[in-house]
Amino acid sequence: SERDGGSLIWKQVQDSGCDPSGALEPLYESCDPSGMDVFGAMFGIFLSASALPQISTILESITQARVACFLAQEIMNRKEDETISGADTTKTTEHGEGTL
């Protein structure tokens, strides 16, 4: 397409004869965007795309931590005769069955 970096640089080279590398700056004007600008943008997109799977892993870990903290808080804040919602609080020991 005409909007990608390579096409923009090529059009500028054809129109004005600019230097896409920027290495011959005193003799020739550098293109805008230069080849390094396009390379940097492509590299940034590549690094961003490689981090996307890690974001979903982080969000999943945060959700699991929130669930664990909620259950721990419920246990710490309960009164003596309350039970934990949805949890089995009976435990069989060597002395018989009891309540946590």
State the distance separating the first and last CA atoms: 68 Å
As laid out across the biggest beta sheet, the strand order is: 1-2
Please write the string of helix (H) and strand (E) elements. Answer: HHEE
Percent in helix? 55-70%
Major β-sheet, in short? 2 strands, antiparallel
- Output the structural class: mainly alpha
In percent terms, what proportion of residues is strand?
5-15%
**Would you identify the regions where 5 or more consecutive residues have pLDDT less than 50?**
none
Number of helices: 2
Computed Rg? 31 Å
**Mean pLDDT metric:** 77
**How many runs of DSSP E, i.e. beta strands?**
2
Overall spatial form: rod-shaped
Structure, explained:
With 100 residues, the protein is mainly α. 55% of the residues lie in helices and 8% in strands. The protein has two helices and two strands, in the order H-H-E-E. It has a two-stranded antiparallel ribbon. The longest helix is centred in the middle third of the chain and has 43 residues, at 35-77. It is rod-shaped, with a radius of gyration of 31 Å. The model has no long low-confidence stretch (mean pLDDT 77).
